[in-house]
Structures are given as C-alpha cells and as structure tokens.
Amino acid sequence: MKSIIAEGKTSNEAIENGLRELGCTKQDVDIKILENEEKRSFYSILAPRIVKVELTLKENVEKNIEKTIINKEEKILSDENYELAKKDLLKFLDSFSKIYDGLEYEINKDNNLVEIKITGENSSKLIGYRGDIINSLQTVLSAIANKNTDERVRLSLDICDYKSKRENTLKELAKKLEKTVLRTKRKVVLEPMTAYERKILHTELQNSKNVTTYSIGEEPHRKLVVDLKK
Q1: Which CATH superfamily is domain 166-230 in?
Q2: CB neighbourhood size of 211 (10 A)
Q3: What is the C-alpha to C-alpha distance for residues 230 and 227, in angstroms, rounded to an integer?
Q4: Per-domain residue ranges for the chain?
Q5: Three-class SS of residue 123?
Q6: pLDDT digits (tens, 9 = 90+) for 162-204
Q7: 33: how many CB neighbours lie within 10 A of its CB?
Q8: pTM for the full model?
Q9: Which of 124, 189, 190, 216 measures 20 to 30 Å from 87, CA to CA?
Q10: Side-by-side strand order, sheet with 104-110
Q11: What is the CATH code of the structural domain delimited by 79-160?
Q12: Which residues of the chain fall below pLDDT 70?
C-alpha cells in the first residue's frame, strides 16, 4: 500500500502536510508517529523542532484512487478540442517565434496529451537555469491551450530534448543519493524542484530496500528528501 513520510513542527502539522500531498482525508489513512515532539534531549532543545509521521493509505481508499487515476488517463482528448487548442497555440507560437529567429516547433497529440517540441539555434535560451524558463513557458502554453476548450488539455513542452536529458540526469542522481545516504547514515534534502522532477526521483527510488523519499515544504519551494528506511 502507498505510504509517505511527512514532516512538521508538530505532529498535527506533519499529518496535515502528508494529507495534502496524498490528496485525502484523515479517515483515509493509517497514521504512525515516527518522531514524537515530546522526546527531546537537553542538547537538542535549541534545534528546530521537526516531527515525522508515516501515512499509509487504507487498502480500499488506495484502490479507489488508482481506479480514478486510470479512468482519467484513459480519457482521450477529442479531435475537436485538440484542433481548437492547436489553433490557439500556433497563433501564439507564430508571434513568439518572431522574437527568436530560427525557432522551429511542432505540435502533436498523444491520446490525452498535447506535445510541443521546439528546436533551433536560439531555442536553448528558452530552457533557463535548471529548466526554470521552460517550466514557466509550459505553464503559459497550457493556459493558452485550455482557453477555448470545454475539456482539460494536458500539455508537455520539450526544448532541444532537454526533458529527456534531464530525466537521465535525475535517474543518475537518484543512484548517487542512495549511496550517499547509505554511507553517511544521514538524510539528504535537495534544492526545490518541480513536481515533474520530484516524481522522477520518487519513481527511481520507490523500490529501494535501503532508502525512502518524501517531499517537504510548499510550492514552488517544495523539496525532495532521501532518507534511510526505518
């Protein structure tokens, strides 16, 4: 069954953070306090108070969530709404490409996902530091694609194969982080990442026998933590 570890200054705050991440209510989970806020040594009294809790989805709840996810993924974007979204996207991209000479782009549909690929000699400028510009541009394009449609349009933007390269980099990072945590016996807290990047690391380490992963903080400063399994 799906379990996550959440943190907070109190057990209640940690539980709320975990429920928010799972997208469920307190009645849907089994809760286990991993670190009690009352048990603190004299030497740790000045340290920041952090409480860890483990939340495990109850079996019937997990099955319902999985069923909902499958149904959503099976829904295919209609050709009519795809053409509406594509028309608006092309209008924007045609104007946008005038700012950057040499930009080339293509739009395709893959079931319920609209994929945009941008290439060209100046296109790398649209990636930014750790993908901050490409992520912002994807948000803008997603809003444009959904402006005139009556069903949700999921959109993915890639520039110069950045995302596929980034995915490989994150998978390699996951392996290194697992070795680091095992060697030092200490958790590693990464810099803020997008939900897309955190998901890659979560997925890569979800079957690890040695470490577990969970997220802390609020968007857009949410961070991934790699910690030893208890």
Answers
A1: R3H-like domain (3.30.1370.50)
A2: 20
A3: 9
A4: 1-74, 79-160, 166-230
A5: helix
A6: 988 999 999 999 999 999 999 999 999 999 888 889 989 999 9
A7: 13
A8: 0.61
A9: 124
A10: 104-110, 113-119, 154-159
A11: 3.30.300.20
A12: 1, 35-49, 59-75
